[in-house]
Design brief:
It contains 10 helices and no strands. It is mostly helical and 263 residues long. Helix 4 packs parallel to helix 8. The radius of gyration is 20 Å and the shape is globular. It starts with a helix and ends with a helix.
């Protein structure tokens, strides 16, 4: 009985530590859009709730990859707490944005859509992680840039206009009617490839940096190190410029339909 008590106490202690680590690490992600004005100014991403979600989600994915590599059971507990804080923050921000009179049914609908977006984007980014950088770039383009500039059928938009696609932000997104700061600014297609290249290099660089952070620092201190500047990664040679192999292309084709359900 005594052994069972101490084993149980140890389990709860690990879970409690995981909650603190999950909260501390998530706090480094949730304000990245404010720390990186480049994403709004150079990439011309609109300052909306949906954009905040996508920028934060990129960093959530980066830490998710690192937490999955932690020894059990720490990785499982920390990752669960980390994701819980992410979705609690989404709900809190939605409620603050939409006001106290918003119905619970509406909040539930928004949360379901953002959960589906999160699932789809995590799948797409994971494919990019193990596949080529062209797959990772595609995930960034579909999510952060809403697949603008080229429709999903592969037809270039006429007269350099931004093509509207079915992979835009959720139909129920409150930011369709409520902008946080300003009217959305459409990204220029001529600059978009370079911006996507920069973001791919940033993700690759941060994945490498997080790999070098010790498990002890994450588990005991909740320390994943400082994020690097998003717009300075393009000169670090972090992008694999190899050609697309037939095997990679076939794998990408098989996953296209599944990814398209979400983004």
């Amino acid at each position: 009985a005594v052994k069972f008590f101490y084993d149980g106490f140890g389990l709860y202690a690990k879970q409690s530590d995981a909650v603190r680590t999950g909260k501390k690490t998530y706090m480094t992600c949730c304000e990245r859009d404010l720390e990186e004005e480049w994403i709004y100014d150079a990439c011309r991403v609109p300052r909306t709730f949906h954009s905040w979600f996508q920028i934060t989600n990129l960093h959530v994915w980066l830490l998710t990859v690192r937490f999955r590599a932690l020894p059990p059971p720490h990785g499982k507990y920390i990752l669960q707490a980390f994701v819980d804080f992410f979705f609690q923050d989404i709900e809190d921000r939605l409620r603050a944005l939409l006001g106290p009179r918003i119905s619970e049914r509406t909040i539930t609908s928004y949360m379901k859509e953002y959960r589906d977006l999160w699932n789809g984007s995590q799948l797409a980014l994971d494919i990019g992680l193990v596949g080529g950088d062209w797959e990772l770039a595609g995930a960034i383009w579909r999510n952060l840039f809403d697949a603008k500039g080229w429709d999903l059928g592969g037809k270039e938009s006429d007269k350099s206009q931004i093509a509207e696609t079915s992979s835009r932000q959720p139909s129920l997104s409150p930011l369709n009617a409520h902008d946080l700061v300003e009217e959305p600014r459409l990204p220029q297609t001529v600059d978009m490839p370079q911006n996507i290249y920069t973001l791919v290099a940033y993700l690759r660089h941060e994945l490498k940096r997080l790999e070098e952070v010790s498990d002890e620092d994450i588990i005991l201190k909740g320390d994943t190190g400082p994020w690097g500047p998003m717009n300075e990664a393009q000169g670090r040679d972090s992008v694999n410029q190899g050609s697309i192999s037939p095997k990679e292309f076939e794998r990408w084709r098989k996953f296209t339909d599944e990814i398209g359900k979400y983004r």
